[in-house]
Fold this sequence. Notes:
By secondary structure, the chain is an alpha/beta fold. It has helices at 4-18, 43-51, 55-65, 89-101, 134-149, 165-177, 200-214, 218-232, 236-259, 277-286, 324-338, 353-365, 401-418, 424-444, 456-459, 467-488, 503-512, 515-524, 528-548, 557-581, and strands at 28-30, 39-41, 72-78, 82-87, 115-119, 153-157, 290-293, 296-299, 313-316, 343-349, 374-380, 383-384, 452-453.
Amino acid sequence: MKKILECIVAELAPAFENCGYDRSYARVTLSNRPDLCEYQCNGAMAAAKAYKKKPIDIANEVVEKLQGNEMFSEITAVMPGFINIRLNGEYLASYMNGMQAEDKLGVEEVKTGETIIVDYGGANVAKPLHVGHLRSAIIGESIKRMGRFLGYHMIGDVHLGDWGLQMGLIIEELRDRKPELPYFDESFEGEYPEEAPFTISELEDIYPTASGKSKVDEAFKARAQEATFKLQNGYKPFRAIWKHIMNVSLADLKKNYGNLGVTFDLWKGESDAQPYIPGLIQDLQDKGLAYESQGALVVDIAQEGDSKELPPCIIRKSDGAALYATSDLGTIIEREKDFAPSKYIYITDKRQELHFIQVFRVAKKAGYVKPDTQMVHLMFGTMNGKDGKPFKTREGGVMRLENLVAEINDAVYARIMENRTISEEEAKETAKVIGLAALKYGDLSNQASKDYIFDIDRFVSFEGNTGPYILYTIVRIKSILNKYQEMNGHRAEEAKILAPVSDAEKALMLQLTKYNEVIENSFAETAPHKICQFIYELSDAFNKFYNSTMILKEEDKDRQASYIRLITLVKQVLETCIDLLGFEAPERM
Length: 589
């Protein structure tokens, strides 16, 4: 379905042409003065220079051609040459009915079905998810859902940290705690146990203990480095321990990501890139791209036009160890082999900007991806506490993600119980749904690249630009629809949306017309906050319409059925949008 601006341009372009001007001047935007008009065309201003005429004269000519056009209730030329436009109510109603008839309410799917990889996890195994993992998970899930809705073949990869020194640290700490295990008996020749020698709780204690010990005990650190080397070179006992670590960690990670409404198509990690690394290093040397510098192997990535000096990408350290850049390049080679995507989207905090500049440039320079493959690094800012500093627990530590979710749910539960109309059990279940919306919307409503203040009191409010306010709007519409159905059955299902009879009704329709453009732009610009802004404005427009219109007391049954069809469309749009953001609405609040 055409976007509303495209529909308006389709009427204006022939008028410009018929007046002797190029069609391209018929550009239309939303008015920045809604008190004066709904849409605006400034094409006459630009055409004036090319055709050496006064802008107002050009605007008047075009407007004259459009007099009587059924799309417009008003189209006028105003000084110094603007064309102000208001849409006809009948046309708006027909656009609403058109949206309702479309499978995706007017959003067109791409026909190519291109494959896009979204890398948005980045959790380390053997460690609990904490608030630092929140933004990549929430933003990435929304980007993946948007792309899939538009018809792209989206592949989400968690890309776990599962192969570095932390593994050696865990192995050696486990040796110190349980030296009797068969993995540490060099004479053991049997099959290793299928059951892990630790629980997730024990594992989450083992790693920080081992990490702290390595900072003060050089001998322990050396043992951990040796264990890491053995693991990475296929030492069977340590590979068995590693598999236990992975199995126990993955079960916990899947549970906690699942509680966030976040899923991945691939549960791959750095370890999956390792088979590609020897060939990658050899290939970079054979192509003359990698060279030695102070004992390390590096690739220059600086390009003409760079605004600042960019250091070479280190591919292999002087001690022979690979780095994150090497692992990420190996992962790209694997992804090209398996999926040949047309686009990559990596979602991490902005501190990794240089890393991804280096990785992307090496990948292009070495020909591991095609020249036209898009490689996007969506950088996000910091989630801060009310003190403006990175969010911490009251004790000053990094908060576990499940504790943060529980804190939000408790706050929502308390808010629900203030005006309780449902049972405690239903209130607790409803609090989980609203809490997730509060958490996700609180994050996604901010431009990803910016830092933001994590304010639970504001996020769980049922008023203002919050997730609960959006959900409350949906629940209010559901309530009206249920009451209407009790009164009238399914009468409205065959009805059409009629032309608006009030300013509030027309404003609601105008807001709905933005839907397909917002969805497309939000994905193209990897900007979920634009969907948030749209549904906040749509919710506001609905509530103004609701407060000024006696929907269920309307005596004209055709008009009432039209209202019901219109607010049903509002509900469908809101529900679609919150699904793209990664949450849902309860039945009652």
